[in-house]
Hints:
By secondary structure, this protein is an all-alpha fold. The protein has eleven helices and no strands.
Amino acid sequence: MNDPVKGLRAARTAETEEKILRAATDLFVRQGYAATTLTAVAAQAGVAPRTVYVRFGTKAALLKRAADVAMAGDTAPIDIRGRDWFVRARTAPTAEARIAALVTGGRHMLERSGDILAVALEAAATEPDLAAAAQAAREATHENIRLFWTDMARDSLIGPDADLDWLIDTTTVLVHAETYLLARKMIGWDPAAYEEWLTITLTRMCANEKGPAFRRGLL
């Protein structure tokens, strides 16, 4: 039997967390990591400073949580592999549909989280926990892309002689948040331009599968 009191308490806790995360994201992006304090976050969120300290503990932990939620799009405990867009990227009936799901889902994720991720990457230079989280995210991206291409090969959506290692490693670099941030800063791409470029690039990679030839210096 559901306990209405516990349900109300959980709802209030979730609402408080969301208020804190909205305030933290705004301050981190506008002021930077160093200039943002937990006390300032509490004031903007309209909660007691102790609430922020008890819930998150450290500024680095708060920034990591804010970045994680921005990437996911919500506070649900579902990682990237369980998100609908990534499931479609692994199960859609055609290579075109899988690439579209992967690229569009990634584009929306980076569009939501790009600014706060940039702050987290900068703060990682002085915060070991954030540096470790950034490396874990890189490794998770590599594994997710390995699943994507392995599934494509299993379902005969790429040729049997495709160089999976090359496809996996190259795509990992292309889809990673740091590549998106670099393209945004260096070339001035907006999310739509990034999505178009990535769609074209992955489609050509899928069609041509030139990894081994590149490595042999033939192309």
